[in-house]
From TrEMBL:
PANTHER family: UDP-ARABINOSE 4-EPIMERASE 1, UDP-GLUCOSE 4-EPIMERASE. This is UDP-glucose 4-epimerase. Its cofactor is NAD(+). The lineage of its organism: Bacteria, Bacillati, Actinomycetota, Actinomycetes, Pseudonocardiales. GO terms for molecular function: UDP-glucose 4-epimerase activity. The keyword NAD applies. It comes from Amycolatopsis roodepoortensis. Pathway: Carbohydrate metabolism; galactose metabolism. InterPro entries: Epimerase_deHydtase, NAD(P)-bd_dom_sf, UDP_G4E. Keywords: Carbohydrate metabolism, Isomerase, NAD. It catalyses: UDP-alpha-D-glucose = UDP-alpha-D-galactose. It comes from the Bacteria.
Length: 336
């Protein structure tokens, strides 16, 4: 285990953000810090970037699957609650490498729960996914929509929810699981999404190089043949975490919430927004559907609005604009 030497230990009663150097985790940390909460980050930096973690936040470099590391950070930083964001997250990759996803996502979750219970940490906020719904009969899904994931990634997220629910009952944990829809944008120019699996950075990479955007699947039964998704700004997602943390600190919970906007946009509609924001021509090359992709899925967000008083504030243009600004800064810096 390595703890960055430039920072002090987290405040007593801190929240441990597992995957805190990642795209979503770094935004969540900044949001919690804005609320003056104590935070400590745990990340193995396999996909995360230490530069994303603010200098006054302790960063423990290690794996959630390492019991010694997890136990040490929980005890040394007097952690009071855990936000678990570390996971492999590509539905397509999971189809090719299912054992890797079960090992990293499910086993990591089990070890984290074991060490929390052993150290008496009782609050848990889980990063889950809309992938647990699979291909629903009604594309507008509520938290009670039957879960039938179609990829090993979605299966592992659902299993993590089951583990958390069972541990909550058996060990008195208070917990919330947030089922994210498609998280995009950037709340800070330094926190750009650079994933090779997400639509925005994939399109930005192609159009800035003068290549056409690859659209996987143009024959779905949707409004224009391309997949329809509920895109939600990362700043709104971070706000949802802050609202869930407040709920967990205030009362015992055992709840699952969708985190989206309630509005679906097709891939072609997103490309139109990228053209408008970037001023660049965006040509399209059609490719076959990807394994594990649903034609259309949109969040019903009534429950989170009622229970947590949370509602997404950003529209698609705001999401695209923030993502493009962050990407442009990143692209300019890499060109120097």
């Amino acid at each position: 285990m390595k703890i960055c030497e430039t920072v002090k230990p987290a405040k007593p009663g801190s929240w441990l953000v597992v995957g805190g150097a990642g795209y979503i985790g770094s935004h969540v940390i900044r949001r919690l810090r804005a609320d003056r909460r104590g935070v400590v980050a745990l990340d193995d930096l396999s996909t995360g970037d230490a530069a994303r973690v603010p200098g006054d936040v302790p960063l423990v470099i290690g794996s959630v699957a390492d019991r010694t590391v997890v136990s040490a950070v929980l005890r040394e930083h007097r952690v009071d609650g855990v936000i678990h964001l570390a996971a492999r997250k590509s539905a397509t990759e999971s189809v090719a490498y299912p054992r890797r996803y079960y090992r990293d996502n499910v086993e990591g979750m089990r070890i984290l729960l074991d060490e929390m219970i052993d150290t008496g940490v009782k609050r848990f906020l889980l990063s889950s996914s809309a992938a647990v719904y699979g291909v629903p009969n009604n594309p507008l899904v509520t938290e009670t929509t039957p879960t039938a994931p179609i990829s090993p990634y979605g299966e592992t997220k659902l299993i993590c929810e089951w583990l958390l629910r069972s541990a909550g009952r058996a060990n008195g944990l208070s917990w919330v699981a947030l089922r994210y829809f498609n998280v995009v944008g950037a709340a800070h120019p330094l926190l750009a999404d650079t994933s090779n699996d997400n639509l925005f950075p994939l399109v930005f990479q192609e159009v800035t190089a003068g290549r056409p955007a690859m659209v996987t699947g143009i024959d779905y039964q949707t409004k224009d043949g391309t997949g329809v998704r509920d895109y939600v700004h990362i700043a709104d997602v971070a706000d949802a975490h802050a609202a869930a943390v407040e709920r967990l600190e205030r009362q015992q919970s055992a709840d699952i919430y969708n985190v989206g906007t309630g509005v679906g946009y097709s891939v072609l509609e997103v490309l139109d927004a990228i053209r408008a924001v970037s001023g660049l021509p965006v040509e399209v090359t059609a490719l076959p559907r990807r394994p594990g992709d649903a034609p259309e899925i949109v969040a019903n967000v009534d429950k989170i609005a009622h229970d947590l008083a949370w509602k997404a504030r950003h529209d698609l243009n705001s999401m695209v604009r923030s993502a493009w600004q962050a990407w442009s800064r990143l692209d300019t810096a890499s060109a120097r």
